[in-house]
Design a protein that fits this description.
It is a single chain. About 45% of the residues lie in helices and about 15% in strands. The protein is α/β, with parallel strands linked by helices. The mean pLDDT is about 95. The structure holds pyridoxal-5'-phosphate. The site of pyridoxal-5'-phosphate (PLP) has 14 residues, from α5.
Length: about 375
């Protein structure tokens, strides 16, 4: 029988053991974690909507109107007016004919890959895609091929090598551990030229990138008509929970018929959909939130530049400080925590061996003094051993 104790011990020895911290209140920059006040720089709540008064009020009204549990899957009787209205509003906002809600982004990605690809087909993925896209590709039963990071030429070569079956290309819009933005125009032309279907997972772009916050397509100046499938999560910039897939009428109907992670799971609570509708309204009525986030990104990068803290080229809210060795990274994270700054160490297998990092994320609701404190503490981090 598998020796679980040994495996756990080994993880500890390799500094790969993960454990949870307990937070006492809402998601926001100033938190109490494990009983200690900290400034958090690791949340994906990029616009501060997880604890926004209008979003909370909509959630409470939703619970009063619909109760708490949805009671059943969408195809039984769990699909409420709230879910349906949110799907329509998301379609209007993204510019796609239809959208479909999933309970989580992980499930959306598994469901899409399994519904649209199978034996004899190919799923092609960026090497640095999120785990849920890679797992979707594996579970689909199609041949999974990974192309070099953000390299449309390598993708093209791999597409050319596959002349049988359908081809599905999956990419993050903003890469979750690096913060760089996909070359969407390059992906679109590679897919158009080689009869492949493209899906962009915009978990970290939706709500924040582009003039109107429509995400990485708007940022790249690419029309929804050129990207047949678009997916985004609602638990990050929108501050609630869940995910949606956007596409044509036929695509969405196909997912409703075929995506197992859609069919065989309880619909998320209607109140969550009501809260998300409120977030979507805030995102559209408050461009200043995106402006504040952009100002914070620029301010943070300038401060780091002046104090010699080494950053990558990322222009998004995800600003990794790559340290390299796992143990050094874990120690750096602990040192930061001792100074009241919470940033988790991201280690293999989440990122490649030798590229462990502090994944700093900025939010519109961080103040200048939060960022000043962060930069002053980051100065104590040893220089990168990865480059
Ligand atoms: C967070 C994330 C997901 C998963 O979404 P959940 O709603 O948290 O399950 C999928 N793709 C990417 C790129 C993500 O960052």
């Amino acid at each position: 029988m598998k020796n679980l104790g040994n495996d756990l011990q080994q993880r500890k020895a390799q500094h790969l053991y993960r454990s949870r911290r307990i937070s006492e209140g809402p998601q926001q920059p100033e938190m109490v974690i494990d009983g200690r006040p900290v400034i958090s720089f690791c949340s994906n709540d990029y616009l501060g909507l997880a604890n926004h008064p209008e979003v909370k009020a909509a959630f409470i009204r939703g619970a009063e109107k619909y109760g708490v549990g949805s009671g059943a899957a969408h195809l039984i009787n769990g699909h409420s007016r709230a879910h349906h209205a949110l799907e329509e509003e998301l379609a209007g906002y993204t510019g796609y004919p239809r959208t479909l809600l999933f309970s989580t982004g992980y499930m959306a990605n598994l469901g899409v890959a399994q519904a649209l690809a199978g034996r004899g087909d190919s799923v092609l993925e960026d090497r640095l895609n999120h785990a849920s896209l890679l797992d979707g590709g594996l579970l689909s039963g199609a041949r999974l091929m990974r192309y070099r990071h953000n390299d449309s030429n390598d993708l093209t070569e791999k597409l050319v090598s596959r002349n049988q079956g359908d081809k599905l290309v999956l990419s993050d819009g903003v890469f979750s551990m690096d913060g760089d933005i996909a070359d969407i125009a390059g992906l679109v032309s590679a897919c158009n030229n080689h009869d492949a279907m493209l899906m962009i997972d915009d978990a970290h772009g939706f709500g924040v990138l582009g003039r109107n916050g429509r995400g990485s397509l708007e940022h790249a100046g690419v029309s929804p008509a050129d990207v047949p499938l678009y997916m985004a999560t609602l638990g990050k910039a929108l501050g609630t929970a869940g995910a949606f897939v956007a596409g044509s009428e036929e695509l969405i109907e196909t997912l409703i018929q075929q995506a197992r992670t859609y069919i065989y799971t309880t619909a998320s609570p209607p109140a969550v959909a009501e809260a998300t509708r409120a977030s979507l309204a805030v995102i559209q009525s408050s461009p200043q939130l995106r402006q504040q986030l952009d100002d914070n990104i620029r301010y943070f990068r300038n401060c780091c530049n002046q104090t010699g803290v080494e950053l990558t080229d990322s222009q998004t809210a995800i600003q990794p400080v790559i340290i390299g060795e796992t143990q050094t990274t874990v120690e750096a994270s602990e040192q930061l925590l001792a100074q009241g700054i919470l940033i988790t160490a991201i280690r293999p297998p989440t990122v490649a061996e030798g590229t462990a990092r502090l994944r700093i994320t900025l939010s519109a609701v961080h103040s200048r003094s939060h960022i000043d404190k962060l930069v002053s503490v980051l100065k104590i981090i040893p220089p990168s051993d990865a480059r």
